[in-house]
Amino acid sequence: MNSHDAYFFGYGSLVNRNTHHFADAHRAQLRGWRRAWRHTSLREVAYLTVVPDEASVIDGLIAAVPADDWAALDEREGAYDRVKASHQVIHELDHAPEIAVYSVPDGLHRAPDEKGPVLLSYIDVVVQGYLAEYGEEGVVRFFETTDGWDAPILNDRAAPRYPRHQSADADLRDLADQHLRKVGASIRPVS
What we know:
By secondary structure, the chain is an alpha/beta fold.
């Protein structure tokens, strides 16, 4: 398998091209999965994962795994299992690569709570990616196809805790805040 035969599907921060150096990235969709905010004992805060949902289709990016180096990508996605998903990904490549998606295994995650909140700086990164790739309609679909908005969200914008945070201008923050209000999210200050 050469580097152009192995791809992964990104559905969160990996949609934001500023968070990685995967040059061979393309817009794609994943059938049969839905995003969810989940907490795992392997991380201090909640992260996005995908959970099976036959009725759902989510937007994202597929990217070639450089030199088929899954080990480096597996390290970045340390709390996740790599799941084969070629048969569920809709893309415009002119060949049929092997495609995987990363998902926290069932039973190893739970709903976010005060001890494992969602970081607002992480949400900003994801919204920035979806806005760049899919426009405002893509941001709407991101919020609609993600569960767990009842999770506590920590406003860490002044001192971002998310390791791949990106600078977010006022318009982007306002867009994220607008959608968070629509889903009834509860944002709390850093204590």
